[in-house]
Amino acid sequence: MFSLLSRSPQLLLFGSLLVGLATAAPGRADWSSTSSAQVILRVDPASGSATAAGASYAIQGSGLGSIPALNSGVAPAAGLVLAPISDGATFQVTMAYKPGDSVPATLTPGTLPAFSEVTVQQPGDAGGLAGDVTSPIRGSASAGGPGTTATLTQSNTFSVFR
Q1: Residues contacting 129, CB < 8 A, separation 6+
Q2: Dihedrals φ, ψ of 111, to 5°?
Q3: Is beta strand 117-121 parallel, antiparallel or unpaired with respect to 47-51?
Q4: CA atoms within 13 A on the CB side of 12
Q5: For the whole prediction, is pTM greater than 0.85?
Q6: What are 130's strand-pairing partners?
Q7: Share of the chain above pLDDT 70, in %
Q8: Which among 7, 70, 89, 141 could disulfide-bond with 152, CB atoms 3.0 to 4.6 Å apart, if both were Cys?
Q9: Considering only CA atoms, which of 20, 28, 44 is closest in space to residue 125?
């Protein structure tokens, strides 16, 4: 029997290559995809704070002798005695007093007491605040009035495994 492959080494090599390609395993890769969209809408509530101030007392001077000493930062007890250091000497004295806020024993929820420092934040105005998610990869958010927040978060993750 006559064989063409046995006569030509090139044909033998080409035939071996064809057989190898026909039996080779195909390439393969696994992959995954995750998509998400989220809309968060927020309207701030009204809020407020009140801070009570304590009493303050200041007395300063020069050219005077006193008991207790001036400029010590301590409020003097009743009966403060001030006298010039020497007869005919010049002197100066300054006194300031600010009463503290009276703090009630109980406070009514939702109201702010009349303290020295009061801060009020108006409630947010929804206005045109809007948002929607139409698919895992599509969403929209529109700003509202003052005191509002619209947040759109979209995420796409692709992974390829060998």
Answers
A1: 41, 43, 142, 143, 144, 145, 148, 150
A2: -120, 155
A3: antiparallel
A4: 6
A5: no
A6: 142
A7: 75
A8: 141
A9: 44
- Other Cβ atoms less than 10 A from the Cβ of 147: the count is 19
The secondary structure of residue 107, as a DSSP letter, is -
CA atoms of 77 and 81, how far apart (whole Å)? 10
Give per-residue pLDDT as tens, 67-119. Answer: 666 666 566 666 677 778 888 888 888 888 888 888 888 888 888 888 888 89
| Residues recorded for the chain | 162
Q: Which of 41, 30, 6, 29 is nearest to 141 (CA)?
A: 41
Q: 105: which 2 tokens?
A: 């024993």
Q: In the block, which residue shows the tokens 């696994």?
A: 30
Q: Is 12 helix (H, G, I), strand (E, B) or coil?
A: helix
Written as one letter, the residue type at 63 is G
Residue 80, pLDDT score: 72
Residue type, 58: A
DSSP state of 123: P
